[in-house]
Protein 1
Amino acid sequence: MKEYRCDVCQWVYDEAAGLPDQGIAPGTKWEDLPADFVCPLCGVGKDQFSEVE
């Protein structure tokens, strides 16, 4: 499982953890997130995230 960091506020989406409180089950891959997914902290779209190395 991978992690993706918001380029604006540095919040990290962890595929293993998901976001259960937002209806995103643990294990949900980045590419399977809805196209309209936004950072829960700053509101930017998926295009403003980078994979954590």
Note: Strands lie at 3-6, 12-14, 49-51.
Protein 2
Amino acid sequence: MARAPLAPLGAKDRALLEGWSQEFGPALKSYFKKRVPSPGEVDDLVQDVFVRLAHRADLNSIETVEGYIFQTARASIAEYYRKRTTSRADLQDMFDEDKHILAEISIETVLADREAVKQLISGLYELPEKTRDIFVLYHFEGFKQMQIAQDLNVGIRTVERHLAQANTFLLKRVERYR
């Protein structure tokens, strides 16, 4: 689905976007570098985040800017992979590179892995909110434990304890379905 043409930004929104670009641009680059196979696409994905933000009316109303920006980044990466997997050329390249691996995958393995992912996601929502947040920041967002401790204003031991609890709970949950 194509986006509507971008209306001219007001001075306040333009200033906000420029400031956010300076503040969050390096973190977004790091985020995308960990998630895309081609380093040449990282800058395009960072730019896409800010283009998406520019399409939003009233940027001033965003309450948690960092959260909103990384939610937008997740949407950009999802669209990137959706487009990538629908491209026949990419599918052919992927098949050529990985055909020996694909030959070893059975339908039972795929179904078991799919069920394990469902259980992992379901289990995440059963965790206490703080434990879930710490788990997501560490495992999905790539934050270091010390950084999480500082951001949440808790001790490093607290972060370690929450991660251990989450890991133990989720591993037990997923292992039941493997």
Note: Residues 1-6 have pLDDT under 50 and may be disordered.
Protein 3
Amino acid sequence: MTRVLVIERDDSSRRQLREEFERNGFGVVEASSAEALSLGSLQADTVVANAAFAGAPSNAIAMAAPIPVVVVADSPSIPEAVECMRAGAADYLAKPFQANDLVAAVERAVAMGSVPTDSSAFSPIIGQCEEMRALLDQVASVAPTESSILILGESGTGKELIARAVHSASRRHHAQVMTFNCAAVPETLVEVELFGSDSGHSATEENATATRRGLLEAAHGGTLFLDEIGDLPAAAQARLFHYLSEGTVRRLGSAETHRVDVRIIAATHRDLRQLTDNGRFRKDLFTRLSMVCLRVPPLRERGDDVIAIAQTTLERVAGKFNKRGLTLTTDAIDAMRRYRWPGNVRELENALERAVILCQATTIDADILPIDTESRRFPQPDAQRETSSSLEGYFLRFVLDNEDHLTETELAKELGISRKSLWERRQRLNIPRRRTRKRGPRR
């Protein structure tokens, strides 16, 4: 059972806190002064202390270390809050507050006391090159904070893996991390998915839905990973900025706001600064998200990490297809080192899966790897337009010829597919999305 040391001078307030914690399954140790920290904290997993106890709050925080402390303030002030947070307080709550806010703060504080300090959070990540070591050092530094994070990198570099590493090494690792791909959902549904809707509200009458929580509410206490944030529609950008500023969300069709506690991690392969300059991404949202930026290097910059990732992936994929024991020949390894990997880790995994399926021997040679080591890159769009007569070639030609003056929704409609399918084919064929707004024909 999690035990909380409550330090509160007022008997009535102390009793209320004890009853609330016990109602939520916590064990409680009570004290009326900070002197209890010299012994009481040894019996508790976290401390909830009133900022009015004798001496500066920072002194009590230091006395309790390494036990995390949640400070509650009868007369809150910004200087005091700053002092407490600099001293290492897990949280600072101003009275009056909702009981569930205090319980959530204590749960986070308890989790903070057990945040992994080794590399266990990074175990799924393979990388020994200088760039990756520097990136993982950054992750370890920013993970325990509550800052929003923007992860930049080309498609297929593993941005979601980095986001999950941040979550796993954070104070929220006990809670869930939820993901949302901003480019894979029709624009009319993005706001409902993220912020929820009130009974009967929908972007279209035929899609009217019952009251539902959005992902921000569902992720309360945890982390929400927003992939391809550069494709977030303008209206949703405004709502997201409001949440980051105020900490509240309002469902579509509702007049009520809900306070939620979610850490936002966003990612994109696009140049958000350029989108901001072009007026296609909110400058205030970009500023808020980019306070902490992490860049994931492309595979071509990672040296021998390519082979380490390939060996691990081959073992996993070979087991999946019951072909354990497969190895890469020297020629295959050399070819993989020379190749530029425009699709990065995702392309590497797909290439190895195809090779495992086709392999009839105990080794994988370069000739069955679907990579072009001579050009070291994919053919340019013009060459593809001239040589391809397949369905994928038709898709490629249509998208390249029309994306300047059709929106993604209109492109999908003309092709007879969903917007999600359009996005998935773009990823598979390595056709980056250049525009998000409808534009007239070039003059």
Note: The mean pLDDT is 80.
Protein 4
Amino acid sequence: MAKLESSMRNMVVCLALVTLLASALLCGTYALTKTTIDTATQKDKETAIKNVLPNKEAKLGKAERVSLEGYKDDFVIYPATLDGELVGAAVETYDNNAYGGKIKIMVGLTQDGTISDYSILETAETPGLGMKAEEWFRDKGDIRGKNPATTKFATTKDGGDIDAITASTITSRAFLTAVQKAYESFMKYQNK
């Protein structure tokens, strides 16, 4: 095989070919894995809804979208009924101000807004610090059984009633804000 002359034209052509090949491989991999990833994400969401609901025998209703002022994306309410009466809901909530960006949570609420449970759906927090949120707010800063109507869902450092994750105040603030927004969107849903 003959060696190409080292010229600007040849270098640009080679770089363009390598870039085109890499782009094609990335697009192909994305196309092949997108359906699998979407299916897994949906399954995780369905599992989270079942796990956070206040009453496991409750029947899930049609998902409803609720918008709150100052938030670009809607909050999704999955109402739960038992014998035709609303017993609570699972609320897909988020906050964009976590240390790693967006944190997305599924929060279970009873009819009066008391937190029954939660599950983190998506986060990019620092391993070992912000990633502790899943356990922290069940153990040391337990939010289950608390109602944002009577408990200030902010860190004690910010004058609230909930202990922040040690060395991870930004994540704690974002997590608690997302839970507060779940409560507010559920109350708005009930009052419409």
Note: Residues 8-52 form the longest helix (45 residues).
